[in-house]
Design brief:
The chain is of the alpha/beta class. Helices cover about 35% and strands about 15% of the residues. The protein has a single domain, classed as Flavodoxin domain (Rossmann fold), CATH 3.40.50.360. The structure holds ligand FNR.
Length: about 180
């Protein structure tokens, strides 16, 4: 059983990325594993002056990541990059200097957008950041999802056309986590 933290880079109530994330945890490959969603909406804007006295919400995020065997990021694409709320969360948990919660944690990256390139550019920016943070990140398969009716069913599961593909992705991610001790 692996403990997986899920970080979704959208705060909106009807977020497609959040819906895909919830459905991902219901795939066969995820059964028996423990998924916890990070709360990044209550984080303050990152301010380096607060590094010595981090807010409780920052401490909670860092504790969740520290206690996890791996991290799944779902990023929307905002103006061809990741949303500021996601970068804000990443920056918070990377500090104070030398006490990053991310270091060494295996990562998986997915994203869904209304655009045809399915967050490809946002994911590429995110991968750049994760490499710097020393997070071994699943390379293949890549997951670029364009939101369409039926991607997530009324019951909150992944729809038929993507279920096998995403189950394979989750299997590959959990195998990566296992190779890193999770
Ligand atoms: C977007 N959207 C968007 N889509 C895309 O494919 N490429 C992009 O560069 C952008 N840029 C962008 C900027 C901003 C500020 C917003 C609000 C939106 C559309 C985006 O894919 C859409 O809003 C998704 O629904 C966002 O994901 P969630 O919130 O549904 O998870």
């Amino acid at each position: 059983m692996s403990k997986i933290a899920i970080v979704v880079g959208s705060l909106r109530a009807e977020s497609f990325n959040h819906r895909v994330a919830e459905a991902l945890t219901r795939l066969p490959a995820g059964q028996g594993h423990d998924f916890t969603f990070a709360d990044i909406g209550s984080l303050p804007l990152y301010d380096q002056d607060d590094d010595a006295d981090q807010a409780d919400s920052v401490k909670a995020l860092k504790a969740l990541i520290a206690d996890s065997d791996g991290v799944i990021f779902l990023t929307p694409e905002y103006n061809r990059s990741m949303p500021g709320v996601l970068k804000n969360a990443i920056d918070h948990a990377s500090r104070p200097y030398g006490q990053s919660a991310w270091s060494g944690k295996p990562a998986g990256v997915l994203g869904v957008s209304v655009g045809a390139i399915g967050t490809a550019l946002a994911q590429q920016h995110l991968r750049n950041v994760l490499a710097y943070l020393h997070m071994p990140t699943l390379g293949q398969p890549e997951v670029f999802l364009q939101w369409k009716d039926g991607l997530v069913t009324e019951e909150g599961t992944i729809g038929e056309s993507s279920a096998a593909f995403l189950d394979g992705w989750l299997q590959a991610f959990l195998a990566l986590v296992e190779t890193h001790g999770g």
